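Q: Structure tokens for this one, please.
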Amino acid sequence: QVQLVESGGGLVQAGGSLRLSCAASGSVFSTNTMGWYRQAPGSTRDLVAYMTTGGFTNYADPAVKGRFTISRDNAKNTVYLQTDSLKPEDTAVYYCNLVQALTTYWGKGTLVTVSS
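A: Here is the predicted structure, written as tokens:
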């Protein structure tokens, strides 16, 4: 089993920044993919970005390109999401996930609220 704990969410004004973190513990394999999803009120949970242990990165949401940066520390089994130039429409619960050996694990999410 793998446990994921997100942190770093909060209330920020438009134009501000937050750095989200997600630490994985338990039976974490040396090869995996960690990513961030977000779910706005009344909406679906959508992929924001993911990063493999090898460093391959994909930003799935065009709305965040140039504003969000995903990174990871493999030694700490931690993935980060630097969110800059935040907009009210970025308000959502941000979820971390980890995929390894065809199994997906989820964190409980961290709320990001951007005020106008």
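A few notes: The two ends are 40 Å apart (CA to CA). The mean pLDDT is 97.
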